[in-house]
Amino acid sequence: MTEFPRTVVVLDDEASMLTALQKRFEVRGWKVRTYPDSESFAAAEFKLSDPIVVIVDHDLGGGVVGYEIVTQLRQARPDGLALPIVYLTGRESEKSYLEQRLKDPNLRPSCFISKNRLAHLDLLDICAALLVHFQQTLEQEQSQALRRAVAQVAMISPETEPS
C-alpha cells in the first residue's frame, strides 16, 4: 500500500483555532491548509481531488454550518463519500451528531469531536487513522473497478461471442 502524504484541511472561523491546529499538525510533519470561511474553502477544496483529512467547525458565521459544508464536499469530490471528515465544534452534542448520522448516513462527517475535549484527545492520531482507512477504501474501490472492467472485456471478447 502506497502511503498518502499527510494533508489536513481545516475550516474554522476562529483564527486562534486555525493557528493552534496548524501548529499542532505541522510539528508532526503534516501539510496543512487553513480557511477562515466557507467561501474560500469551497473555492479551493471543491476543485481538488488530493487525499486529505478535513476538519470542519460547526458554526462558521453568517448562518453557514459545518453540516452544509460536509454535504457539499461529499457531493462535489469524486472521492467525497469516502473522504475523512472530522466535525469539530464547541456547541453541538454527541446526540446531534448521532441524529445527523441517522438523517443521512452517506453525507455525515466521519467523526465528531467537541472542542472541549480536544486537550484530552490526540487529534493527529485520529486523523492519521482516518487517512489510512480512506486510502484502503480507495484502493479497494480501484481494485473492484479493475475487476469489473476485466470481467466486461472478457464478456465481449471474440472467444466468448456465440457463433
Short description:
With 163 residues, this protein is of the alpha/beta class. Helix content is 46%, strand content 15%.
Write up what this structure looks like.
The termini are far apart. The chain is 46% helix and 15% strand. It has one domain: 3-Layer(aba) Sandwich (Rossmann fold), CATH 3.40.50.2300. Strands 2-1-3-4-5 form a five-stranded parallel β-sheet, with helices on both faces. The chain is globular, with a radius of gyration of 19 Å. The chain is of the alpha/beta class.
What would the keywords be for this entry?
alpha/beta; about 15% strand; 5 helices; Rossmann fold; five-stranded parallel beta sheet; globular; about 160 residues
Helix/strand structural class: alpha/beta
User: What's the structural domain tally?
Assistant: 1
The CATH class designation is Alpha Beta
Low-pLDDT windows of residues: none
CATH superfamily heading: Response regulator
Mean pLDDT over the full residue set: 80
| Radius of gyration, in angstroms, nearest whole number | 19 Å
Distance between the termini: 44 Å
- What's the arrangement of strands in the largest beta sheet? 2-1-3-4-5
Total DSSP helices: 5
- Report the β-strand fraction as a percent range: 5-15%
Q: Do you know the CATH architecture?
A: 3-Layer(aba) Sandwich
The 3D shape can be described as globular
**Overall helicity:** 40-55%
The helix-strand sequence is: EHEHEHEHEH
**What characterizes the major β-sheet?**
5 strands, parallel
Output the CATH topology.
Rossmann fold
Number of strands: 5
